[in-house]
């Protein structure tokens, strides 16, 4: 059986967040609860004992309280990218509500998805992904170092310095031969 409940997409992130300064992606959070219903008991305890600390630590997040009659408690978080998430809190204790509130605060707001590929680019190339061992001998992977074979400096041809020196020596030879011909 395949899992089609979670959508599949490429990895996304909030670009440049943290370069210069960090911007919390949670724009506002709404705590919905009932003033009298038993399932909202832990939400009311959280609001009375922990919500003031949360608002003082995170002044950039707007906090709303929304009493609703005879409804299950929930947390609604809205992010800067326009995404909105609702988390039902019925049966969750105060510690769990604190953890979920912190989880929503630290999220980027991007939808949770199964990642299709580890690497994705908006500008695909026909070339493969470069890595430092791309054009190296595969024998390097199983060699014990230090190795005599791979310790030798490989000289594939004449260097630019060798070519310049040859050119200069050829010019000086021609100049010497011309001067000896002129002397005769």
UniProtKB/TrEMBL annotation:
Record keyword Ribosomal protein present: yes
Main location: mitochondrion
Compartments, as annotated in UniProt: Mitochondrion
Positions of the Ribosomal protein/NADH dehydrogenase domain: 35-108
Record carries keyword Ribosomal protein: yes
GO cellular component, one term: mitochondrial large ribosomal subunit
Family classification: Belongs to the mitochondrion-specific ribosomal protein mL43 family.
Keywords linked to the UniProt accession: Mitochondrion, Ribonucleoprotein, Ribosomal protein
Highest rank taxon of the organism: Eukaryota
Species annotation: Arion vulgaris
Protein name: Large ribosomal subunit protein mL43
One of the GO BP terms on file: mitochondrial translation
Pfam families reported for this sequence: L51_S25_CI-B8
Molecular function terms from GO: structural constituent of ribosome
